[in-house]
Amino acid sequence: MSTLVWLIGMAISFSVTMPVNACPPSDRAALLAFKAGLHEPNLGIFKSWTGTDCCNKWYGITCDSLTKRVADINLRGESEDPIFQKAHRTGYMTGSISPAICKLERLSSVIIADWKGISGIIPPCISSLPSLRILDLIGNQISGEIPFNIGKLRRLTVLNLADNKLTGRIPRSLADLSSLKHLDLRNNMISGTIPRNFGKLRMMSRCLLSGNRIYGPIPETISYIYRLSDLDLSLNRLTGPIPDSLGKMSVLGTLNLDGNLISGKLPATLINSRISILNLSRNAIEGNIPDVFDSRSYFMVMDLSYNKLKGSIPKSISSASFIGHLDLSHNHLCGAIPAAEWFEHLEATSFMYNDCLCGKPLKACS
Ligand SMILES: *[C@@H]1O[C@H](CO)[C@@H](O)[C@H](O)[C@H]1NC(C)=O
């Protein structure tokens, strides 16, 4: 027993007194070049970036404990960190991301998020960082295109470039990101079509492309992504019909296609699918609402407003297990609104601006 205590004691004092290898001078130089490209006027987050050992208390920097190579850059402009609390403000930073960052060959995550003012392009050399798992540059002013060979990053699990000023197309190679789980390109100015090979992204569970200028059809191959749980293609310029196969996906729970130019009929498969949040508002969807609701139909949100739906509200809707927020307004529906237990909480606004709907909560049918 006492030997064991002694051994543990030795081990602890040994590890404390052992000289810790500092980060390699080349990594330090790359970080300093990265810092030189940025200007952070308010908080002084780079003040700690002094001394030779960049692995030791440099704000936002983490090194691999064995190799002492820089592994993570984690700089968030919106953070609970004491630096921010003391200053009573969120972060603001200008400048651009220096290509020197690509010399940090062992980088596993690059998070430079919500600084509002960082501009310039994504250094194309970033696609040559073999260990990169997370690239998160949300909430800046980054422009230019997504590097065309981004698909080389076979370990990348998170690609978040939302809320920037990116232009150009989604590169074809993006579909080669075989580890990608989370893709967020929302609110940029990305145009072009959704690459037809998108279905290759077999690990993807969230795909958020809302608020861009993406046009063309929704590729049917998206439904091959069997882990996909959240698909947001809203506020783009997509055309053509909704593929039937989207309603047969095993875990798709959120489907937002609102604010596009989608036409064709409402696929019956969407009505009794796993989808519980469905927003198809502001498109050009026509025909009847399929009369196929059953106990599998469970919707927190079903927004079909501002389309060209006609006919009556199907009777089967009363056998849905739940519809929390229903919006059928601004269509061409007609006839009596069916009665259902969960209809009790619905207001007239859910049904207004149709051709001739009647009954509770609207005026009684005559
Ligand atoms: C559905 O999308 C429309 C148009 O983008 C939006 O105005 C509406 O708030 C969304 N509905 C719900 C319930 O979130």
TrEMBL record:
Q: Does the keyword Hydrolase apply?
A: yes
Q: What is its EC number?
A: 3.5.1.98
Whether Repeat counts among this entry's keywords is yes
Query: Matching SUPFAM superfamilies, A to Z?
Result: L domain-like
Q: Name the InterPro entries on file.
A: DNA_repair-toleration, Leu-rich_rpt, LRR_dom_sf, LRR_N_plant-typ
Q: Which keywords does this chain's UniProt record carry? A: Hydrolase, Leucine-rich repeat, Membrane, Repeat, Signal
The Leucine-rich repeat-containing N-terminal plant-type domain sits at 25-64
Organism's domain of life? Eukaryota
This chain's protein is named Histone deacetylase
Which compartments is it annotated to reside in? Membrane
**Which PANTHER family did the record assign?**
DNA DAMAGE-REPAIR/TOLERATION PROTEIN DRT100 (PTHR48060), HISTONE DEACETYLASE (PTHR48060:SF14)
Q: One Pfam family of this protein, by short name?
A: LRRNT_2
Output one GO MF annotation. Answer: histone deacetylase activity, hydrolytic mechanism
| Any one Gene Ontology cellular component term annotated for this protein | membrane
Q: Identify the stretch annotated as signal peptide in this record.
A: 1-22
